[in-house]
Amino acid sequence: MGQSRIPVIDLGLWLSGDTAARERTARRVDEALRTAGFLLITGHGVDPALRTRIREAARAFFRLPEAAKRPYAVRVGGRGWLGPGAEANAYADTSADTSGPDGSGDAPNPPDLKESLSFAAEEPTGDAAVDAEWFLPNTWPAEAPGLRPLVETYVARMRSLSDAVLELLAEALGVPLDFFTRHTRHPTWGFNINWYPGRDVVGEPEPGQFRIGPHTDFGTVTILDRQHGKGGLQVFTDEGGWEDAPYDPGAFTVNIGDLMARWTGDRWRSGRHRVLPPPADAPAEELMSLVYFYECDPRTRVESLPAPVGTVAYEPVDSHTYLRARLDAISAD
């Protein structure tokens, strides 16, 4: 995929550059999000060694026998282990060409070929109803004792980085810098460590089955640390169709979700993407992604920006009523 559609954005220029550099950066972001909904972000300052250590700790858990992992099993949206077949992201994709394995619309895509360790915001707000749904304690597998401090350090960095990205997005839209971050004082977020084992573990994929089926994310921004592989990330654009996403080992892949697309009145595209099945010519290929999903404060009213910024006037939605419906839609059970 050409860099013109998914540019590399040096966040350092945005954070410390002069006015002209900041304006150029904001223009590039606006152009990219109108097409693919994706960016590559460098200059973020997150230590690559931290990401490596998280993968090492998580891999020890994922390689345990299923019986050892089963006590941590949860449904989509829970905190714990999402086992094989627990999630089917394509269920929530309304695009016609993904409504069936062959595009016929006869049946949904099979469940995703992955396992995940899933964590989320847990610091209570004091609102009992909100806390009971969105701010529950995380579960930390005893079999991965070093994982908790690593993840807690990482998600703290991701929250700060997400707010910096949201301020950049506000500048790109020409609205006040705190247009989005005024709604992230006590936000929800999710963090998934996604394990994509090879065919030697999962067997032969079914027709239309992916490591993650075609979908868009649901929140404001997603920050992805991924590994390069044959069975890796693809991004969809109207101009190019499905293409391999560009890869930079030092960069984060950032995309916007459905809430952000609604907020901008479809000025920006919610980045549609998928993760290819494990390749037949590399049956032992194993990849692991660290995925941070950022949202906003519960009960945020998301209302489309009017023209000339926005192009579609969606009905306002309660952010977390919307998010819950989307999470329920991808549950495979």
Report on this model:
This protein is of the alpha+beta class. The protein has a single domain (8-98, 107-329), classed as Jelly Rolls (Sandwich), CATH 2.60.120. The protein contains nine helices and 14 strands. It has helices at residues 11-16, 19-33, 48-62, 66-69, 128-134, 147-173, 199-202, 258-263, 319-329, and strands at residues 8-10, 38-42, 80-82, 115-120, 189-196, 212-215, 221-225, 233-237, 241-244, 252-256, 273-275, 287-294, 301-302, 317-318. The strands form three sheets. Strands 1-2-10-7-12-5-4-3 form an eight-stranded mixed sheet. A four-stranded antiparallel sheet has the order 6-11-8-9, with no helix packed on it. α2 crosses α6 (147-173) and α3 (48-62) crosses α6 (147-173). The longest helix has 27 residues, at 147-173. The radius of gyration is 19 Å and the shape is globular. The protein starts with 7 loop residues before the first strand and ends with a helix. Residues 96-107 have low confidence and may be disordered.
Which descriptors apply to this entry?
alpha+beta, 333 residues, eight-stranded mixed sheet, four-stranded antiparallel sheet, Jelly Rolls
**What global shape is seen?**
globular
Number of domain units = 1
Number of helical segments?
A: 9
Q: And the CATH topology?
A: Jelly Rolls
Percentage of residues in helical conformation? 25-40%
CATH homolog superfamily:
B-lactam Antibiotic, Isopenicillin N Synthase, Chain
Largest sheet: 8 strands, mixed
- For the termini, the CA-CA separation is 35 Å
Taken as a percent bin, the fraction of beta residues is: 15-25%
Low-confidence stretches: 96-107
Query: What is the helix/strand order?
Result: EHHEHHEEHHEHEEEEEHEEEEH
CATH class group:
Mainly Beta
Q: How many whole angstroms does the radius of gyration measure?
A: 19 Å
**Spatial strand sequence of the major β-sheet:** 1-2-10-7-12-5-4-3
How does the helix and strand content classify structurally? alpha+beta
CATH architecture assignment: Sandwich
